[in-house]
Amino acid sequence: SKENSMNVGDTVYLKSGSPAMAVQHVERSDDYSEAENPRVETAWFTDAGVMLKNTFPAASLVNKDPRFYR
């Protein structure tokens, strides 16, 4: 959806709760199912300062920390 569009550099969170993550890449596709739910590559730092990366379906991410916006 438009209100949940994500771009490189945006801060996102898993809907289920997560550290703040930076969008590194959005895998957009012409395939209808993928276009509706692109894969979003994210990166974040642990409390120990280690950078981690993972890719999530856009539908599992939100732009606001869900701990404060339920």
Task: Give a short synopsis of this structure.
It is built from one helix and five strands. With 70 residues, the chain is mainly β.
Q: Describe it for me?
A:
The two termini are 18 Å apart. The longest helix has 5 residues, at 32-36. The model has no long low-confidence stretch (mean pLDDT 87). A hairpin with a 6-residue loop joins strand 1 and strand 2 (21-27). A five-stranded antiparallel β-sheet has the order 4-3-2-1-5, with no helix packed on it. The chain contains one helix and five strands. With 70 residues, the chain is mostly beta strands.
Question: Helical amount among residues, as a percent range?
Answer: under 10%
In sequence order, what are the helices and strands, one letter per element? Answer: EEHEEE
| Terminal Cα span | 18 Å
Structural class: mainly beta
Shape: globular
Whole-angstrom Rg: 12 Å
Low-confidence region ranges: none
Number of strands: 5
Profile the largest sheet. 5 strands, antiparallel
Question: Strands of the biggest beta sheet: in what spatial order?
Answer: 4-3-2-1-5
**Mean pLDDT rating:** 87
Strand coverage percent: 35-45%
Q: Count of DSSP helices?
A: 1
Topology:
Elements (H helix, E strand, L loop, with lengths): L10 E4 L6 E7 L4 H5 L2 E7 L5 E7 L3 E2 L8
Antiparallel strand pairs: 1-2, 1-5, 2-3, 3-4
